[in-house]
């Protein structure tokens, strides 16, 4: 595995506390797969035969509503894992996954490889349970935010989370397209644009892929951070 991929793997909470030789053995049982933006990784209802670690790029997890609309559940960055719970429990994937950037590169771990790794090192089981609990907690927080925070507050929280902790102003590079950011925050692109406009009082201005915040302290207070 290339150094860049190894670094991405070690960023993953599932592996970061394991010994390097243990991570090596796990990685050897997987394979690196590549996707272009928009390409499907798996579809909701497919047999859950593998889980994935993002080595490069972004992955969108989503479900289709009965009306055929796309509801984004999460956007997974480099160093994160997804679908481990589905593989661990068996059955079928509860969501669809697609590459949100080009290129997107993943480590794919088959179910049989996971079982072999669990037999070799029980610490992996603990790491996997911890990872699943972290994802469940994150989903709970996301649902709470959608219920309690209005659109401008959600956008403010998103921007503050990506700005340097000790800065008074910042230029925040948007990690992926605005439409996907809006969907991940539970709003339409139009609502996202209106929310950005509502934050102009904190010196928020945006271009295609960057948002400038001149009053980061004010935005933090507004976001409740």
Features:
225 residues, alpha+beta, four-stranded antiparallel sheet, 9 helices, 43% helix, 23% strand, globular
Could you describe the 3D structure shown?
This protein has 225 residues and is of the alpha+beta class. 43% of the residues lie in helices and 23% in strands. The protein is built from 9 helices and 11 strands. The strands form 3 sheets. Strands 1-8-3-6 form a 4-stranded antiparallel beta sheet. A 4-stranded antiparallel beta sheet has the order 2-7-4-5. Helix 6 crosses helix 8. It is globular and about 55 Å long. The model has no long low-confidence stretch (mean pLDDT 88).
Short description, anyone?
The protein is of the alpha+beta class and 225 residues long.
Q: Note the total helix count.
A: 9
In which range does the helix fraction lie? 40-55%
The order of strands across the largest sheet is 1-8-3-6
Rg is: 19 Å
Mean pLDDT: 88
Strand content: 15-25%
The tally of strands reads 11
Shape: globular
**Biggest β-sheet description:** 4 strands, antiparallel
Q: Are there runs of 5+ residues with pLDDT below 50, and where?
A: none
Distance between the termini: 39 Å
- H/E series: HHEEEEEEHEEHHHEHHEEH
